[in-house]
Amino acid sequence: MKKKILVIDDDLNVRDYLVSLFKDNGYDVSIAGDVKEGLTVAKKNIPDLITLDIEMPGEWGPRFYRQLAQDPELKNIPVIVISGLSGHQYAVVKAVASLSKPFDREELLKIVNDTLN
Amino acid sequence: MFKKILFATSATAASDHAARVAFNIARSYQSALNIFHVLGVPSRGYSQVVVDVKTKERVDVDEDYLAWVNEDIKTYYAKYLDERLHYTIDVAVGLPAREILRQAKKLTPDLIVIGGSTGDEDETVYKKSSAGTTLQKVAKASHCPVLVVNRPAASFWGGLSNIVFGTDFSKTSEKAFDFAMKVAKALDCEMHVFHALDISPLHGGRMLSQDEIEQQIREATRKIRALYGARLKELSHYSMDVWEGIPYVEIVKYARDKHADLLIMAHHSRKLPSQDIRMGGNVEQVIVRAGCPVISINK
Q1: What is the pLDDT of residues B230-250, one digit of tens each?
Q2: Does A61 touch chain B if contact means CB atoms closer than 8 Å?
Q3: Listed residues B155, B170, B187: the one ending a domain
Q4: CB-closest option in A63, A70, A87 to B157
Q5: Which residues of chain A have a CB within 8 Å of the CB of B157?
Q6: What's the structural domain count of chain B?
């Protein structure tokens, strides 16, 4: 069974790129454009991994993580932060990794593969 | 809630995290934001020759130079400045802490926002010689709450909704609690009241037994409930906890555990810092280490 990845990012180009990248590498991908939608999608279709942007319209990435961590069903899902903000590596303490935009696709895939397999 | 905010900035990377929070709060709560920059210290007495905090160069300060610095700040923060934000920019010459306090006295803001040193290798004059002590002096002497954003980690919350209030049961803590309640009610926040029981041998002079520690936890829990319990019922979500350990470590851990986006604490010491101790007490240590903005209440 394919592993599921949820991509949360308000930038359509980044979302499209990540969807193609993960699909090409054998993953099922769902998407969300903000924190609220991210939580709805995560609850509906429990993912195996989440990539999370930090600065988004409305609530920011750490708030998504807070709600994720408080949900018994979702709290153990690994999160990879992908952000263009400086210092983003400190934004979510328990993220499995934090990558700067533009990110290296091989590095991201390696982290995803290592985390999921 | 925050009608007037004074954002004291070096307009360098050291203030970027504080800027993110200051602009976010100002935008979220339609505050009037005063961006205040102390450009440097006169080289001698009332001389107009100033060592610029950003460039470290000696410059002649005249109206043209001040206008240029003003424009430079506008450019630096261009991505935040738009017609929806009510902002003003002021530039002063002098010792940063003194000028920030002077500006606060003039503007009477509801909140001062200030950043800290990034602690990286890029040491500007501002960071090297005055950022730490500026922060300390302002926090200790300010008449209004001071919000400090020292670490990048403290700047990614994008709003205030979950407050940790750290208490040591002092008189100043009562004032700080009043302020925390005001913020929690106005912004509909959760609030977590926390006391850290200091069990380090350095504090008590001896190692406590586990029975003694647990007895003190029970006493502190009773005290928290007696002091704050009734008023906390005015909020829809709250909790009260006592943990033992090194206070500043426990407060930072507790805030992280609660995913707090704001820490509020009382700042008691009226003493100015000695030259060789940059960051001393628990509040200063919390400010330096916290993963969220810290508001220090002095009076």
Answers
A1: 999 999 999 999 999 999 999
A2: yes
A3: B155
A4: A63
A5: 60, 62-63
A6: 2
